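Researcher: Next sequence.
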Amino acid sequence: MTHETDAPTPVPDRRLAAALAVPTATHALVFLIFGLVTVFWQEPTLTVITVMLTAYLLAYGAASFFTSRALLREGDDQNSQVFTSIAGIQAGAGVLVLLLPRGEFWLTLVVCVALGLTGVLKMLAGMRTKGYNPATRDWQLEGAIITIFAAALPVVSEIGDKAIMGTAGAGALIAGVFVMIGALTLRSAGKGV
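Model: Next structure:
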């Protein structure tokens, strides 16, 4: 009687977990700060929403760039390039939101496309690195949440400015909670390195 054995499952790298803990926490803080500000800002105008979404996209891009540098230092060139591209999309969208004519249509379109595209890229990066990257589930979950809320933006944009801000903020808050849990898990997994 012969038994077939599965190939051994790769063990996530503890050093990579330690390197990704701070960038992941940075992502979580960007999400949580933006989300909390949207909760407490009761009467946002289109100008306020434009400035806040610009700041959010630029901060999100900076956090993604920070992650790309951490990946590069650990020798993960491929994912470093993915996160550099994600950072470029986010930062470019942040600048574009300011440069385009003021209006809910353009604001919603740019933010929806930028968040949707980067969410999908993050999910794909997580799927591709399953097995060796300790942040793979965090990337997949964050990407899924951000993509879902990006898809909801065009639907709620007709309701008004507060709906745009609330939808973007809700997605950021939910993603922020899960990503912060992931950052703490990475920190714990990377101890002793």
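Model: The radius of gyration is 18 Å. Residues 14-189 form one domain.
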